[in-house]
């Protein structure tokens, strides 16, 4: 059989590997959008029917999402959407603090004027999103900032580890569903007040990089990660409290 030939119905055959990734993306998006909720059981046959595929790519996608931390399989019980825990948050930020602290130090030593300008542009964008309380835009800009920072470190192994950690962070973020929680908080809530200064945390870092001060840049990043960790823990607590209240 020729793999590049069309089938009788006019479609090209899809390789299993590609199908697995597409199925995993669909399940991942369902978790991120809240269609599949933390703690909810997922069934292979239901997913196969919903996505119009056999159970083999569903099974492979589930294994992939278990590896990412989005799904958890329990013997004799089944597969469930994972729940974010305080330990997950603490472990994630301890990793990010170590990796990005090093990245900040290296960028302060190596960044070109054009790269500093690119980072500054993102900080300016953060200010606009923060003033509008547009948290979705704010976190998207933040992701671009930290991704660029690790790229500008010019450290191949650091970059590879950052990509891995970032993938895990995305999974954790999906499970916490922060945006609806934040949108429901009053303007004087401590979490909202802290996020109103979000750009200032990054500005201090860019200033240290522009001054070519590696020690200060690393310290700024570690302080930022500590504040972000506490903020994420607070958001997680608010989300848990709301879940408990709605179930009572």
Describe the structure.
With 248 residues, this protein is mostly helical. It has two domains: 16-81, Winged helix-like DNA-binding domain superfamily/Winged helix DNA-binding domain (Arc Repressor Mutant, subunit A, Orthogonal Bundle), CATH 1.10.10.10; 86-247, GntR ligand-binding domain-like (Four Helix Bundle (Hemerythrin (Met), subunit A), Up-down Bundle), CATH 1.20.120.530. It is built from eleven helices and three strands. The chain has helices at 16-32, 44-51, 55-68, 86-110, 113-131, 135-152, 156-176, 178-183, 190-196, 198-210, 214-247; strands at 41-42, 71-74, 78-81. The protein has a three-stranded antiparallel β-sheet. Strand 2 and strand 3 (78-81) form a beta hairpin. The longest helix is centred in the C-terminal third of the chain and has 34 residues, at 214-247. The N and C termini lie far apart (59 Å). The model is unreliable at 1-14 (pLDDT under 50).
Give a short summary of the structure.
The protein is built from eleven helices and three strands. Strands 1-3-2 form a three-stranded antiparallel sheet. The chain has helices at residues 16-32, 44-51, 55-68, 86-110, 113-131, 135-152, 156-176, 178-183, 190-196, 198-210, 214-247; strands at residues 41-42, 71-74, 78-81.
Task: Report the β-strand fraction as a percent range.
Answer: under 5%
Helix share of residues? over 70%
Gross morphology is globular
Count of separate structural domains = 2
| CATH architect. name of the largest domain | Up-down Bundle
Q: Name the CATH homologous superfamily of the largest domain.
A: GntR ligand-binding domain-like
Work out the number of β strands: 3
Q: Note the main sheet.
A: 3 strands, antiparallel
Radius of gyration: 21 Å
Helix and strand string, N-terminal first?
A: HEHHEEHHHHHHHH
Low-confidence stretches: 1-14
Instruction: Provide the structure class.
Output: mainly alpha
> Count the helices. How many?
11
């Amino acid at each position: 059989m020729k793999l590049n030939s069309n089938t009788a119905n006019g479609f090209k055959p899809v390789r299993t590997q590609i199908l697995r990734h597409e199925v995993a993306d669909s399940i991942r998006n369902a978790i991120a959008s809240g269609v599949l909720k933390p703690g909810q059981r997922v069934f292979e046959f239901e997913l196969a029917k919903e996505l119009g595929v056999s159970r083999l790519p569903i099974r492979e996608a589930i294994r992939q999402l278990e590896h990412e931390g989005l799904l958890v399989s329990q013997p004799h019980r089944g597969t469930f959407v994972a729940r974010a825990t305080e330990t997950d948050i603490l472990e994630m930020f301890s990793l990010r603090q170590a990796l990005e602290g090093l990245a900040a130090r290296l960028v302060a030593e190596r960044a070109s004027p054009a790269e500093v300008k690119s980072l500054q542009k993102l900080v300016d964008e953060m200010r606009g999103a923060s003033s509008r309380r547009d948290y979705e835009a704010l976190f998207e800009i933040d992701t671009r900032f930290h991704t660029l920072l690790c790229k500008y470190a010019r450290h191949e192994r650091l970059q590879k580890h950052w990509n891995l950690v970032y993938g895990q962070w995305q999974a954790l973020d999906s499970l916490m569903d922060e945006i609806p929680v934040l949108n429901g908080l009053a303007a004087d809530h401590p979490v909202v007040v802290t996020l109103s200064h979000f750009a200032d945390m990054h500005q201090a870092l860019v200033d240290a990089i522009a001054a070519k001060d590696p020690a200060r840049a690393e310290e700024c990043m570690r302080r930022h990660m500590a504040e972000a960790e506490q903020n994420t823990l607070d958001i997680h607590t608010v989300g848990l409290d709301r879940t408990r209240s709605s179930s009572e």
